[in-house]
Amino acid sequence: MDVERTFLAIKPDGVQRGLVGEILARFERKGFKLVALKQLIPSKELAEQHYGVHKERPFFEGLVHFITSGPVVAMVWEGEGVIASARKIIGSTKPLEADPGTIRGDLAINIGRNVIHGSDGPETAAFEIGLWFSSSELIDWRPSDYAWRVE
Ligand code: IDP
Ligand code: MG
Asked: Which pLDDT score is estimated for 150?
C-alpha cells in the first residue's frame, strides 16, 4: 500500500469542547506520522473553498459560518493507507450512525457538530493540504521507531 498524506481538521466544536488531545492521541497511537499542525480561525474564503463541493447544498451557509466561528486545528498526517484509515477512525458523517470506537461515534451526536474533518480520497487530500498549508509548513522527518512501523 502507498504512503499517503491526508488532511484532518478538528472543527470549532472539538476545540471548544477540549477534545484536541483526545483526537490527536487516536492518530498518534495508531502509528501515523504527524507532518503538520496549526491552529487558526479560517477565513470565509478558505472555508468556502474547502467546502466548495457542497456549495449548492442547503447546509452550506451554516457550515461555512460554523467552521469560521472559532479555532480549527488543521493537520496533515502521513502513512500507508492513511486516507481511508483516517476516515474509518473518524466514523460516519452522521454521529448517531457512527460506530462506537470511532471519533464521531464516541464523541458526537449532531451532524452539524461532528468534531472533525478528514479528506475523502487522494485528490481531495492533495487539494486540501495545498489549500490549508504552504509547503514549508509540511515537515519531512523520520520517527526514531520508523523501522518498527514499516517492517
Ligand atoms: P464528511 O465530513 O463525513 O466528509 P460531507 O458529506 O463531506 O461529510 O459533509 C461535510 C460536512 O458538512 C459534514 O461533516 C457535516 O458537518 C456537514 N453536513 C453534511 N450533511 C449535512 C446535513 O445534512 N446537515 C447539516 N450539516 C451537514
Ligand atoms: Mg467530506
From this structure: 74
**Which pLDDT score is estimated for 145?**
87
SS3 category, 61: helix
Of the candidates 87, 73, 76, the one whose C-alpha atom is nearest the C-alpha of residue 5 is: 76
pLDDT of 147 = 85
Q: Which residues of the chain form beta strands (DSSP E)?
A: 3-10, 33-40, 72-80, 116-118
Is 6:125 a contact under the CB 8 Å cutoff? Answer: yes
Neighbour tally for 72: CB within 10 Å: 25
Half-sphere exposure in the Cβ direction for 86 (13 Å, CA): 33
Ligand 1 residue neighbourhood (C-beta within 6 Å): 54, 59, 63, 93, 111-112, 114, 117, 120
- Dist. CA 109–CA 119, nearest whole Å: 21
pLDDT score of 136: 98
How buried is residue 3: exposed, middle or buried, by Cβ count under 10 Å (0-12/13-18/19+)? exposed
Q: Whose CA is nearest to atom 6 of ligand 1?
A: 93
Give the Cα separation of 127 and 76 in Å (integer): 12
Tell me the pTM. 0.97
User: What cell does 127 get?
Assistant: 487539494
- Specify whether 65 is catalytic: no
